[in-house]
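question for whoever is on the cluster today: can someone run the full assembly for these? two chains, 227 residues total. i dont have access anymore since they changed the login thing
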Amino acid sequence: GAGVSQSPRYKVAKRGQDVALRCDPISGHVSLFWYQQALGQGPEFLTYFQNEAQLDKSGLPSDRFFAERPEGSVSTLKIQRTQQEDSAVYLCASSSPGQRANYGYTFGSGTRLTVV
Amino acid sequence: GNSVTQMEGPVTLSEEAFLTINCTYTATGYPSLFWYVQYPGEGLQLLLKATKADDKGSNKGFEATYRKETTSFHLEKGSVQVSDSAVYFCALSGSARQLTFGSGTQLTVLP
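^ ran it for u. tokens below:
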């Protein structure tokens, strides 16, 4: 596609509910990142994929958070047993094979998760 | 580890005023530096970048110079417009692939 697409745009979950957030990167983009942006804060790194391989998951805040990218394109971030502190905007970003990190990434518009 | 410290906001300016948003960083090695902009309801957009010391990134009238001696990457614009109202994030990319962001600065430009 023309850009990074994320769905749903908004998600309201009851505390304890499981949620799944989807990211469709730009076609052909090898690298895919997930970030968490709390209200009034900058995005914080969660995890990184190169193709289907999850190369870095050091930013995942707990074992309730799980991400996958089984075919090296679409990625899903799953949060189990959601808590209020999980309320944030979840951003996905991708970059092309020829881009090194210093060229920056293309971000999606994010999914705003509210846990009530 | 890597960190980015940004000027506290919010910043409110009149149209055509001069803008400076300060950014300093801590990193090992030679990071690349970025400014991203987030307009209301939209995702992050890359505004400009610099990949080595003394490089100047520029775009849409905005400029920032990579100053290794002061570990800074301050954002400037000579004459802001109402349409520049947004949140601005300074970020760096070091040896790891991911970006480290500052906390963001909300800019409001009044007509």
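summary bc i know u wont read the tokens: The interface with chain A takes residues 4, 6, 32, 34, 36, 41-46, 49, 51, 89, 91, 93, 96-104 of chain B (CB under 8 Å). The first strand of chain B starts at residue 3 and ends at 6.
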